[in-house]
Structure formats: C-alpha cells, structure tokens
Amino acid sequence: MATQAGRLTQAHRQRGLFAQQEAVIAAAILVMTFVVSLANPDFFSATNLLDIAVNTAYIAVAAAGMTMVIVSGNIDISVGSMLGVCATIAGELARNGTPIPIAFLAAVAAGGLIGAINGALVAYARIPAIVVTLGMLSILRGGLILVTQGRWIESLPEEFFFSQRSTLGVPNPIWVMIAVTILVGLFMKYHRFGRAIYAVGGNAEAARLAGIDPRRVYMFVFVMNGLLVGLAAVLYASRFTAIQSNAGQGFELAVISGAVVGGVSILGGTGTVIGALLGSLLISLIGTASIFLKVSPFWLQAVQGGLILLTVLVDVVRRRRRA
Amino acid sequence: MTETTIAAPERSRRANLLRTQEGVLFVVLVAIIIGLSLLSDRFLTVNNLLNQTRLFTETALLALPMTLIIISGGIDLSVGSMLAWSAVMLGFSWQLVGLPLPLAVLICLLTGLLGGVINGLLIAYVRVPPLIATLATLAIYRGFSFGISQARSARGFPEEFAFWGQGQVGPFPTQFVILVVLIVIAHLVLSRTGFGRWVYAIGNNEVAARYSGIPVERVKFTLYAASGLMAGLAAFIFTSRVTTTRADAATGLELDVIAAVVLGGTSIFGGSGSIIGTVLGLLIITLLRNGLLLTGVKGDATFMVIGLVLILAVLINNLVRRR
Amino acid sequence: MIAPIIELREISKQFPGVRALDRVSFAVREGEVHALLGENGAGKSTLIKILTGAYQPDSGEILLRGRPIRIPDTRHGLALGIAAIYQELSLYPDLTVAENIFMGHQPGARWRVDWRRMEEQARAILQELDAGDLDVTQPVRGLSVGNQQRIEIAKALSQNARILIMDEPTAALTKHDVDRLFEIVRRLRERGVAIIYISHRLEEVFLLADRVTVLRDGQVVGETMEVSKTNQAELIRMMVGRTLDTLYPKEDVQAGDVVLDVRNLCYGRTTRNVSFTLRRGEIVGLAGLVGAGRSELAQVLFGITPAESGEIRIEGRAVRINNPRDAMALGIAYVPEDRKNQGLLVQMNVRENATLAVLRQLLRRGFVDYDAERRLTQEYVDLLRIRTPSLSQRVGNLSGGNQQKVVVAKWLASKPRVLILDEPTRGIDVGAKAEIHRLMSALAQQGLGILMISSELPEILGMSDRVLVMRQGEIVAELDRAHATQEAVIAAAMGADDLRSEPLPA
How much is the pTM? Predict the structure, then answer.
C-alpha cells in the first residue's frame, strides 16, 4: 500500500501539472462537495454546481495571470481597479453601438496596456511591484470615477451578455475559464519562456547566468496578467444587467487568495495555474456551501481568510523543514 | 578597495535641504498650497484647513506605526480591517451587550491590540512574510467585523461621545490635538530613542542587527502590536466622528496609509524614512484631495492624483539615487 | 608536447591599490586535471573570473585551441565551452533536477519543451557522472550539497563544457561525497574534459591532479609541474614562500586566569566536540581551511547558533548562551567575518554603528543621550584612529580599513572580557592592518582574552600566543608559539600525513 502511494506521487511528479498542493486542494473540493451534499442534497444539483463554476470563472481567469506574476516573484494589487476600468470600457463602447466583439477586444487590449505600464515600471524603472501596482490601483480607481461620475452603465444591448449564454449546454464563462487554464497551464509547463518565469522567480541571478533576461520576463508577466484581467472583465461585465462604477473592489484579494491557496508561493518560483483554478474554486465553494449550510454569510470572509493563513503556514513550515 | 573610497566632503546645509526627501516634499507642499489657493479662495482658510484634520486623523494615526514598520522592512496591510473590527466591537459591546461606553471603548482598543499581537506573532516568531501574513489577516479581521456585527451598524451614541471625533479643544478639533501629541511621540520614539535606532538597524541589515545583540523579534512584534493598538484608537475616533459602526468601515484604507508613508520618503525596502516625511506625505495627499474637491473634481477621483504622485515620487527618488 | 586547449599568456589585472594578477601564464590540456594552488588572496578567484568572462584582463591574451579569443561575459564563456562551478551553488530550489540542468537550453521543438527527452538526457548525464540514482523529477530543494553539486556539474556538461573550473568543490562535502566527486572528476578527465581544480587540500591534489600550478601574490611561483614530480612539502613551501615579516607587534604578555573554558562543544556537523581554553591577556589564533568550522565555532560561542551540547565556562562559571544578547551580557564580543553583511549598517553613520551594541547603556529613560554617544564614539575614533570627516559620516563612504575599525569600535565599546575576531584584517590595506594588530596587542596587555580566526598564516603566527587548528569541525592541533610554524599549521589544517614523505602516487 505504501509503495503504491509512493509510486502514485512519483507519477504525479512526472506529470508535473499536479504537484502536492493541487492534489490536496482537489481532494478538499471533493470532500467538501460530498459532505455538504449529504447535509443538503440540493447542493449537488447541476444548476448549483454550474453556478459555482460560473461565479469562479472570472476570478480564475485573472488568477491565471496572477499566477504568472507571483511565480516571477512579483505581485499585482491593481487587478481590481483594472477589472473595473476594462469592464467599463467594454460596457461604454457596447452602449454606444460599437460592435460587441470589438468592445470586448478593446477591454482586453486596455488590460494589456495597463499591464505594460506596470511591467515597464517594475522591470525598467525598478520600482517594487507593490508600490507600482498600489499607485496604479489609485490611478485607475480615481480615473474611473472621474470618467463615469459614479453612474452605472445600463441598458446594454442583448448581444452584450456573453456570460449569460451557453454553448453546448455549458455556460460560456466556464468554457473561457477552462480554455485559459489549459492554455496558460501548457504555456507555463511547456514553453521555454514559461519555464523562464519559474527560473527568474526561483533564482534571478542564476537565470541571468543561464541567458534569461529577468526584465523581459517581468514585462511579459505583467502584460499577460493585464490581458487576462481584461478578459476576466469581459466575463464579469457581461454577466449582470448593469456595470457598477465601483466594479472590482476587493477583487485583487480574491484573485491573490485563489492563487495562494492553490499553492502559488508568494515568495516566487513555484505554483501552477491549475492550482490557482482549484484554489479559486475552493474559495467559491466555501461561499456557496455556507449558504446551503445556513451559516451566516457574514462569517464567510473570516473563514476564507483563515484558509489563506492556513495554506501560508503550511507553506512556511514545509519550506523550513526542507531548507 | 583600499584607500579608494574617499569620504564625501560634507556639503553645506542649504544644498542638503533639497537633497533630502523631506526637503523636496516641503517644497512640493508649498507649491500645492499656493497653487490651490489660487484656484479656490475657499482653500486657504483656517476653517477649511482645520476641518481637513478631522478627515485625515484616522489615516494619519495608522501611518505613524506604519512608518516604523516599513522602515523595519515590513508592511501591515491589515490596518483597515483592524480598524473596522475594533469599531464593530465598540458598537457591539455597547449596544448589543449593553456594556458601559468607557468599557466598550477599552474593548475597542484591546481588539485592535489583539489584532496587532496576532500579526506580530505570525511575522516575528512564526516568520511568515509580512505581506502575506497581513493579507490573510486583512481578510480574517474584516470577516470578524461582518461576522460579529452580522453587517448591522450600531448607532445612537450619546452626545458626549461625539467629543472625540466632532468636539473641540480650544479652537482645535479634538482628534487633531490627539494626533499632534502622537505625532510628536512617534517622532521622538523613532528619532531619539534606542528603540527607534533599532528599527532603522533592523531595516538596514537584519543580520547585522541580530549580530549586534538587538532583540529583532521583540522589536518587530512590538511594531505590529502598536499598529493594532493604533487601529483601535483610530476606530474609536472614527466611530465618534461618524457616530456609527459599520463592518465595511475603512475598506482600502491601508492603501492610503501606505501611499502616504511611501510618498513621505520611507523606502519600501526598509532602512530609511521619517515621521516628518510621513506627515508631509499625509498633508500633500489630504490637501491635494481637498483642493481638487473644492475646484470641483468629484470625490474619489482625487485618488488618481495620489496614485500618480506616489509613482512619480518613487520614480524620481530612484533616478536621483542612481546618479 | 600536447597542445593545450586553453592558454593564458601574461595576464595582468589591476584593482585599485592591488595588483591581483601579475603576468600570469599557464596552460591546460584536454583530459587533464590541473590543480591551482595558493593562499587566500593569491589571485585564484580573479583568474577564474577572467577565464569565465566575469572580468576582463588589463593585458595579456587568452588562447583557445591556439586561437586568441575575447570573453566579454559569462554567457559567451559558456558558449565557448568554459564553465565554472562555484562554492555558492546557483540552483532553482523548486524546480526539478532535470530542469535545473537544462534551464535556458531545454531540448524540444521551438515552442515546446520536451520534458521526456529532457529527463532522459538529464538521466544520461547523471549516469555518466555516476549519479544515476538521483531522481531527475525531484525538486532540488532538500537535496544534499553533494547532490546539488552534481547537478551543477551536469549543468555544465549539458552545455558541452570542455573546460570545467571547480572552485573548492570539496569544502562543504562529507567524506562519502568527496569520494564520489573524485570519481566524477576522473570520468570527466577520461572524456577529455580539461579540469581546473582549485583546492586548499593538498591531499586532493595528489589524489586527483596531473599537473599543478602555484599562485602567490598574483604571480605564478616557478612553473607548472607534474604532480608526480613534487611533494607536499615542496608545494607548501611554494605557497607560503615569503619570510615572516616584522609587521606583527605582538608583545609577550603573562597570561592570566582562564576566562573562557569550552568543553566538548557540539553543533551539527560543523562544530564537533570542541574543547579549548582562553586566558586573560592571551591571543589564541584559530587556523584552518575555509569550511573547517572556525566561523561556525565563533557563532556557537556568540549564541547565533546555540550549542547543542557541551559546556561553556566564563571565569569558571558554567553558562548557557542562547542568543547574542546572552553572550554580550557575559562579556563576549564578536567581530564577524563578513563586514558588509554581518557587521555594518552601511547606510547609517559612524556614530550609530559604533554605539549599536552598547546603545542600552547610553539611554536615559529610553532616549539616546547624544552627548554621551558622541563622547563615546569620539573616544573610539581617536583610540582606533578611524579616519572619518565626521561622526555622522555614512559608514558606506569609509574605506575598508576604517569600516573594519568601526566594527571593532562597536565591540570594544561593550568592554568585553573575550573578544572574538573573525578575519580581522581581511581586505584592508597594510597600514590599517598594522594598526589593528597593534591594537590587539594592546588589548591583550590590558587583560582581554582574544580568539582570532584568520586565514592568513603570517597573521596567525605573528599574533598568536597559541594556535588551534581546526579541520572538519574538530580541533586537530594545538601548537604553542614556539612550535607553531607555517609547515606545522598547514600540515594539520590539510591533514597531510607526513611532510617529509616522498610524493604520493597520484
């Protein structure tokens, strides 16, 4: 039995896509689904489970970008404001009669542009990522309110609501989430540049000696993150009938939490997109489960925060033991 | 390496003023005051300026320990949540439990202290990186605020309670007096005491500090605990000012606080900074915001300027230092 | 004569105030292990850096297979097949063994890393290195130093390195790992790789190397020799060379009572069953090779890594030292080896640095008494003749020697009974060095017990009343002033069997 388990983890390692943390989180998701379903059978319905997945989708898409940023040894706390700005751009353009695909593309491009500014400031002006993105957070949030004057964007054309529609019986956001996770996952696993992100986050000096330019990597991860936040904004904006001017407030926390719970180490150099997806799912699941278990939703954030702390403590202890 | 590094001759004091971050900030501050008073004649009035102090006291209180924490090489993202949690405990223990108000205030202060103590234990003794430890407690403490209050606000505090947030001592707002006293204390602690010296030493070179017999863990712990206690005090004044305790109070306040500290010339990497710089940073942010409001810019849009100023300040600082 | 694969001709390199390399010429052939010997500061590391492209020589030329080349940077050096393995390994702790080997040049199509092929190739390379037992899919974190080093070697080989420089590769290895490393080096030699092997351990030279070149003060001593035609005694003489100068003003002091008494002290693998005593007025030199456990012993005594077992007595009283504060309270002071990282706050000023360890005594109700602080600092600035324009000068702006004096001042200010000096004169100029030596002598006369760690033999011999020699965490010899000769100390430090013996079979 023991040897079998040993071989199993060996196999996981060789697959690489599943490191230990991912397996643990996946198991936690299954166990939780099972237990909550026992307590309240309504939980285990297709509608509800799909709903959880849809709720997670835009977080998970951004978490894929955040994974790249954190693995490279940086952080981006401007993603919440970025989401608001990109969602507003998509909404405003759509309302003014711009073809919907172009409105969506514009949102994604805007994300990429903001990411490029962040990246340039981190990589070439050498300002710490936390300061850059803190400043960017304020700039975008302020700029958004300046432009929208706090008004909500309503009366959007029917076509706009991409996230409310389904393809082959599965809601569109879920398709996007799966596609992004697979593509980014494959990129980070199989592309040389994807591997360079890990190298720079693990030991920037060694990476430099191996011919990798850390500045290019930083630039790249911030641009990618921006593009993915733009995409997340499209999913988010096209889900409800109105886009609020304070959209995305606190979003950065949800995204970073998802990644960290999924095993992306805040110290850089390790973590996977699948982990970030599973982490985001677990957090959403806890949210929905508490409703089904009739736990006061107001305790939810404390539970989610506790989960973050727990995973971080495990990470710290694990690193210390193996150091 | 031998005799090549020639000691730089001491420059005249006048030349030095513009070389220090504080000097630059002071000049910027004067420029802002002149500029804004030209734009709006309501700006440069004693009443307007004194009134401003009411609005920025909470941010300023938190910025004092934050300055020391960032100088020591750490960060505390949980201050906004600690403030909300403390405020909620005040309302809860007074209105729901029915404790006498002074006792409720004590509980408010102790709650902040508890939050800070937990942060301190995690960071100083368990050695969780400060960024991630306080990111987790940010969520947890906010969760406590919602969970304990069940998102209900407490209101109806007695007349005399308003003294702390709305009353006057002579011509000055009460909290302004408290703030000035604490600024002086913080300045003295940082610049004149042995403890302050230790804070700089730790931020400068933690290993050398430890090798010199400085109780590194104890100093760090004290800083985070102090940050919590100050959040408790800010919660008390905040509650007295707005006469209600809400679980979502001070959301995102940590960003304002950190922005003020970094704008004030404290290096995000630790090792340098001052309370005077932080106070100047706070004044610039507050006056900019107020001045823009008076010239007709809408409320939260002023964030934009602050973000911009933050990034530019660090950028310029980087360029000057590199030369 | 076999044509060399790489040859240095008349290479010179000047640093401000130091001539690091002075017309150094030497050549390495394919399939040979070429040992490079020399004391600290002899110019070995500068030479390596020039070979890998990290430094550019001021004059002279480098020939690769007979053709002159330039190596503008390390990437270029790698492309030419020149790789170095440093003591400090540069790995990605969370990535797998295979990826660490191939990062930056992974096999596969343009857009896709072929993991299976990468792992197969990694396995094949490790197999060649006789390390086929290493799981290439395992993360590097937690592997032994020996295994990590094998990965570094594999990394170099994966880039087809034809010239491999190994800088003290055995310094941190266990006996078993050393044996395996030797096996690997021999295999590489068979494959025609040219190996430049730098070591302090003479026995290794005789076990492994074909030829040997000795550097001293930036120059090649004599010329490159066949190892089989020399012996340990001759090599030691070549390395040491100079006669003892009279720089060392150690005056005889009648040693007083035992102030520090250490018995069976243990910490991990680096401090093993260490016992010794230190008396008032005595300077005890602690000699040994890099990695022998000298600084580690100092850190145990100072409470940075508290002892796991054993006994420490201060003036006869058994004490427990759990952290630097305990040590300081007992009157122990430690001037650490790494000035920049362990000793100084380079952005802070002379005054703040000098009083850091005694700040508590300068407080009045928690506030720093600036007058007292200035007085105290001035006192030590005068005593140690620290050359600084003012007490508020940033320490980072001072010269190396004055920086070191600031660290010494910090610890003298604590009025210690036992002063541990770890490489007290490393990297400082001759004048400052002499001043520090004079000071040590004066302090000893005042009754201080001084434990001095040094890698410079003349310093050890010139300053010490007694010399302790450490090797692999143990004290292997204790020599009094009369019996402490260069040869005796080196022999003990290197574990040489017998200095008068004939050359060992290679």
Answer: 0.82
